[in-house]
Amino acid sequence: MLELEEIETFYGNSQVLFGVDLQINKGEVITLLGRNGMGKTTVVRSIMGINAVAGGRIVFNGQEIQHLDSHEIARLGFGLVPEGRQIFGNLTVKENLVATAANYSSSPDPYYLERVLSIFPKLESRLAHYGNQLSGGEQQMLAIARALMINPKILILDEATEGLAPIVREEIWQGLQFLKQRGESILVIDKNLDVLLDIADRHYVMEKGKVVWSGDSAQLTSDTEVKQRYLGI
Length: 233
Prior knowledge:
Layout: E1 2-11, E2 14-24, E3 29-33, H1 40-47, E4 53-60, E5 63-64, H2 70-75, E6 78-81, H3 93-98, H4 113-119, H5 136-148, E7 154-158, H6 166-181, E8 185-189, H7 193-199, E9 202-207, E10 210-216, H8 217-222, H9 224-230
Parallel strand pairs: 3-8, 3-9, 6-7, 7-8
Antiparallel strand pairs: 1-2, 1-4, 4-5, 9-10
C-alpha cells in the first residue's frame, strides 16, 4: 500500500535520512521505533511532503508521491496525528472535527461524528469546549478523531501517547485496538514498546537516520540485543 525506497532527506545541508526503506500493507499496524533524534519524525514529514525528499521514491497504491505538495498527499488518503497535536485551539471540539471532514478513501462505511465520539467518548461531553480548554489527553484524542474524520487510507501517529498520564494512554491504546480490528492501516511512533508489541504487526527500528532492524512482534520480543542497543530497554 505504501512503500519507501532508499529515502534521503536533508535539513539544509545536513542529511537526516540515509536510504530509508519501509513498507505498509493494507490492514497492517506498523511501528517506527528508536531513540529521540534518530529520524522517525523526519520519515513522517517526508511521507507527508512537509520535508522535500532528496533521493529515493515514495509509492502509494502504485503512484509516486514524493514530488506532490502536502495537501495533495493528504487528499490521497493520509491522516496525520502530528507530534504536538496541533489542534485548532480557537475552535470548539465539534468544529475541529467537522471543519475538514471528508471521505477521501470513498469508504462505504465511513467515520462520522457519532462514530469517532464512540471511540473516544470523553470528547462527547466536550463538544462545545474550545480546543485550548482541553487537557493534553483530550487534545490527543481530538487529534486522532480529527484525522479519522477524513476517512484516511493510512493513519499516521507521531508520538501517540507522549507526555500523557497512564490512564489516558490506556484509552488511546484501546482506540487503536478498535481501529486495528476495523482493518485500518496505521503507522505509529511511540516509546511504549510493551503495548506496541501487542498491537502492531511489524516494527522498524531506526538509528542515525537508517533502518537498522525490522521484523514482527515475536522477533522483537525475543531479540534482547536489539532492544538494549537501539531502544534502551
